[in-house]
Amino acid sequence: MTNKKDKKQKSKFKKLIGKLHLWFGLLIGSIVFFISITGALYVFKDEIEGVQRKEYIYHNEPNYQNKEKLTIKTLERLVEQQVPEKYPIHWVNIPIDHALSYQFYYYERNEHAWNYFDEYPVYKLAYVNPYSGKVLQVYDEKNGFFNIVKMLHWSFLLNSDWGKWVTGIPVLIFVFMLISGIILWWPKNKAARKQRFWFKWKNIKSWKRKNYDLHNIIGFYTSFFALIFSITGLFYAFFFIQAMIYVVFSGGNTQYPDFSHIKTTAPEELRTETTLDKIAKTVEELYPDAYMFALDLGHEHIDDHEHPNFEVYVRHLSYSYHKNSNLIFDENSGELLHTRNPEDKDFGEKMINANYDIHVGSIFGLPTKIIAFIISLLCASLPVTGFMIWYGRNKKKKTKA
C-alpha cells in the first residue's frame, strides 16, 4: 500500500511539474530563444573586432622603441581637437605592450532615459598613436553591431537599470524549467533510461518522436552549462544572486571587501600635468607582463557618480577579465596607497571577478567560447522543440474531437 501511495504521489508531482514546465515554456519560450540567439551572436565579438580593427589596434609608429610617448594630458587635448564632442573624454586604456595604440573613450550615461539610445548620449572609442597623438580611427560603439546585440541581450534596448529585469525574470523562470526538465527527463526504469541518453531512430519515422527526443536529450546534455550561463547572467539582474555567489564561494563571508576608506589626502595643488603619467609609470613597473590598465581622466559626467578614491584597474590577460589587480592612488600626488592582486583575493572575490568571463565563455579563451556558442544555440532550440511537442499534442486532440 505504501509503495502504491508513493507512486501516486510521485505521479501527481511529475504531472504538476509537467504542467508548470509546459505553461512557463509557452510564456517565456520566445524570450529564451531571443536571449540565447543574441548571446550566441555576442560570443566571438573580440575575435571578430580584433580582425576588423587590426590596423588600428597597432599604431605602427616607426622606430617607436627609441621614442618618448606624449603625456596623457597632451594626448587627451589632441584627441579632443581631432574628435570634437559635447562631452569630455571619460577614460583611457593604456596597453603594457608599447606597440599597441591607446584607447580613449567618450562615454556618458543618462540614468533617467527610458531606452538604450537615449541612455547613452555618447559612447565612442578612439584608437590613438601615443607617440604622435594622431587619432588612427574612431568607432561609434553605441551604434555598433555588437553593442546593440549586447544591450538587446541585456535589456531589450530598454534602460539598463530596469530593463535587466525584463530579461532577468524570464531567465529566472528558465532556471526553474531547466531543473523541472531534468525531473521530467529522469527515467522510470532501466529500459526507459536507454532511450534518454542518445537518439535511437533506426526504426523511428514519426517526426513527433524525433522532435520529442531532440527536446529531451539536448535538454539533458545542455542543462548543466545552461544553468551556469543562466546564473551568471542573473548576476547582472539581481543583487541577491551576486550576494549568494560571494557568500557561497567565500566560505560564508557576508561582507564584500570595501576599500572606500582609502582616500586622496594630498592637497589639490600637488596635482600637475604629469600626475597621471606618474601613476601610469608606477603601474607599468609593477606589472610588466600585464595586458593593459585603465585611467579615469577625472572629469565630471552626467551620471554624477562619486568615486570614493582614485582606482586603477589592471587587466592581466588579453582574452579575459577575471585575473586583475586593483590599485588605489592619491590622485593629487600620484602616490600608490593600496594594492590588491589576484593572490590577495578570497575565492568569492575571484568568482565575482570571473562572472563575466564565465558568462560569455572567455574564461579559458577560445575553447570555452566555442562551448558557450554551441550551448547558446542549443538553448535556443529548446523553446522551438518544446513548442512543437505542445503543438503536435494539441493538434492530435483537436483531430480526435
From TrEMBL:
Pfam families: PepSY_TM. The keyword Membrane applies. The chain crosses the membrane at residues 20-44, 165-186, 218-249, 370-391. The keyword Transmembrane helix applies. It comes from the Bacteria. Keywords: Membrane, Transmembrane, Transmembrane helix. This is Uncharacterized iron-regulated membrane protein.
